[in-house]
Structure formats: structure tokens, C-alpha cells
Amino acid sequence: MGSLQHNFCFSLFSVSSTLFLLLSLPCFPCNPSPEARRLIDRQTLEVGIGSGPAIGIGIGIGGGSYTPPSSPVSEPSCPPQNPPPPPPGDLTPGDFPNLLLYESYVVIQRFKKTIYSDPFHITGTWVGPDISKYRGFFLETPPRFKNNTPAIASVDFNGFRLGAPTLAGFLDQFPDLALFHANSNGFAGTLPGLTHLPYFYELDLSNNKFAGEFPSSVLPLFNLAFLDLRFNFFAGAVPPSVFSLPVEVLFLNNNRFSQPLPSAVGRTTAPYLTLANNDFTGAIPSSIGETGGTLIQVLFLGNSLSGCLPAGIGRLQKATVFDAGFNKITGPIPLSLGCLSKVEQLNFAGNLLYGEVPAEVCRLANRARLLNLSLSENYFTSLGSGCLDLLRRGILDVRKNCIQGCAGQRSPEECALFLACRKYCPAVEYVPCYSGWESRAGNHGSSSPSAKKNGR
């Protein structure tokens, strides 16, 4: 701090000295001799060179005017000159409660100059030394200080629709930042590294213009609890280590990610996982069952997933929403899904599923919390016991299937064409919540007709 104060005082002295020199130059006659003209030109050049760097540092010296000394009576005086304008940035560290806020002020003003869109005039509030009045900025005393030392702790630009080419040099310049929310803006560029921010734990860049590969700068953020990258233009693969982040919310939907869904999905601790509306391929990995103690909502809809539904889905004891609609998933519904005792929304519409709609799943509407079972646009051929009641109550949707006696089904020709194709997904009848999942851990995917004898 002593060094900063010394440098500041030295810079301020340099500015003041230069300006004093500029204002106290002797006033030559209005029609000087050639010798005097050469002297004027030389001194003007010296002052111009000397004053440039000092004024350019942006430390103001106040808005007061200065009256130059009178010229000698015996010589005609030049017309009076206006005082020079104050240098850009007319605030000094002394105008702020602490040096941290002054440094933040400098960062904000620099970022403000890069903003090309501000329809709500947000940046018009970013003036003066009271940063607590700047819209979008919030101050708190960080844990590293015991006394009252306010600093920028969070930035919330949600809905501001600001446009800037990059967040580099801004987002990474607040040493005590904990949250950055910027939903629905026009930010782009490369996300800067944030590992030097010890308190940072929430990042929301949803609905912006970011593009390119997954932003690897978030991967070392082991304190991150909230990551929202929805509605951008990120593409390519999602690194498996993303699913090892200790986040509670992981929203990657509505981008352009394209890869087989990695088995690392089973490592996530996020209760809320959204991978919808990308171009993920392959089967839902069986490792999804390993998230049974944490996963509450998972959205896989709107990708290009294929393969068979894994029986491990039935292990999601806390899941309230499981949505894998509008993919290319095929096979019968595993009976293990009858163990989803807390599920409210179950969506497999728009796939290639076939067989019977399991009675075990339909019973969830009576003995559990199921409110919506969407199976439209598949190739189911029959309804299990109790499913017809759900159909009448509006809980079950089986439009555009191949179920005789139900309205709004596919044509017989379309059904026959699909059903004639080779089927490769086994009928998984094992129901873990009835027959003891843990004791059968080595046989999760096998068919077990004996399950019907064990109380199902």
C-alpha cells in the first residue's frame, strides 16, 4: 500500500508540475521577433512532449480554473487563453472509500468504452465515485478483510442487453467477485481465466453470443456451484471433467455441442442437469444410475440420442423430471422406471420406442407423484394394466403410436413397416425397488422374469 501511495503521489506531482509549467510560460509579444518565435516554438514543443504521458495516466487534478500571471506592462499582452480541459477521468483514489473501489472504477470505465449496445442506458449510471449506485454492481466486504472494506462482490447484468466484444479485462479484474450473471446480453469473445478469484462460485452467461469450443477456463473452478451456458453458440465436445465440477446447476442446453454422451455424466453431483437441444449422440449411458442420490431434474430432449434406455434410470430416487423426448431412442421401456417414486414429469415423446406401455410406470400416477407421462410419436402397440385410466385422466399421451382402439394413431402401413424392422433392445423386466437392486448390482441390464414373482 505504501508503494501505491508513493507512486500515486509521484504521478500527481508530475501532473501538477507539468500543468504549472504550461500555465506559467511567459507571454511573448503578439508579433515576436524571429529569435523570440524560435524560442516560443521550442518551449511549446518541450511542453507538448512533457505533458503527454502525465495527462494520459487519467488522474484528475480538480475542476477549478487557473488565472495566468499578468504580462509586464511595458509589453503588449496576448489575448487571454482558456484554461486547458481537465484530463480524462476526473476522479482520484482519494474520492473513493478504498483503493479497491478506485481500481474497480478504472476497470468499469475502461469496459464502458467497449460497449456498443445499451438500449436501457444502463451505463449512464456508471458515473461518479459511488459504485454502489452503478446499476448491476453490488458491494460487500470480502472475507479477507475484518473491517468495513467494501468491494465489488457480484455483478448482475441479467436482461440489460448490453453488447461488448469481450469480457476479458473486465470480469477477471475484480479480485473479490463471487457471482457474475449476464443472462440476455450480447457478450462474445473468449472467456478469461478466473482461477485467481478465490470466492467465485456462480457464472451465468446464458443467452449471449459466445461461440467456439467449451470454455476451458471454467474447468479449474472447483468452487463453482452454478454454471449456466444456455443459448449460446458453443460447439464441439464437452470435456468429461465438466461433469466433475461440484456444481448444483449445470445448464448446457441450446448450444451446438456434438459428441456421444460421455459416461462421465454419471459423475455429476448436479441436482439439475440440462443438456437439451444440442447434437449429442449415442445412448444414454448406464452410469446415469450413479446419480441416483442427487439428480432431481435431467433434460436430454432435442438431441440425436439413440440406443436402448438403460435400466439404471430406475435408480434415480430423487428425480422429479426426466425428459428424453425427441431423440432416436428405441426399445421397450425398462420396468425399472416403475421405481421413480418422486417423478412428476416423464417424457419420451418423439422417439422409436415400442412394445407395451408398462403397468409399473402407469401405477406411478396413483402410488407416487406422476402428473405427465408423454409417450406420443413412438411405436407402442398396447397399454399395460391401469394405463387406460391415465389416458382418460389426461396424464398419459399416446398419440401417434400403433395402439389399436386409441384415437390419433399412426396408419397401419406405417406401423407395419416399423415393426417389421429388426429389434435389438432386450426386454429388461428387472425392477430394482421390488427385488433389491444392490443384491443384483452385477446384473442390472439382464432380463429377470422372476421379478414378477417378487411382489410386482
Q: What structural keywords apply?
A:
secreted; 456 residues; LRR_extensin-like_regulator; disordered N terminus; 3-stranded parallel β-sheet; Leucine-rich repeat, LRR (right-handed beta-alpha superhelix); 12-stranded mixed β-sheet; alpha/beta
Written description of the protein model:
The chain has 456 residues and is an alpha/beta fold. It is 19% helix and 15% strand. The chain has helices at 2-23, 34-56, 99-112, 359-362, 364-367, 387-393, 412-419, 432-435; strands at residues 137-140, 151-156, 163-164, 179-181, 186-187, 202-204, 211-212, 226-228, 233-236, 249-251, 256-257, 272-274, 281-282, 297-299, 304-305, 321-323, 330-331, 345-347, 352-357, 372-374, 379-383, 396-397. It has a twelve-stranded mixed sheet. Strands 7-9-11 form a three-stranded parallel sheet, with no helix packed on it. The longest helix has 23 residues, at 34-56. It starts with a helix and ends in a 21-residue tail after the last helix. Mean pLDDT is 81; it is low at 1-88 and 436-456.
Low-confidence stretches: 1-88, 436-456
- Cα-atom Rg, whole angstroms? 34 Å
Determine the CATH topology. Answer: Leucine-rich repeat, LRR (right-handed beta-alpha superhelix)
User: How many domains comprise the coordinates?
Assistant: 1
What can be said about the biggest beta sheet?
Answer: 12 strands, mixed
The CATH superfamily is known as: Ribonuclease Inhibitor
Question: Helicity range of the residues?
Answer: 10-25%
Number of strands: 22
Q: How many separate helices?
A: 8
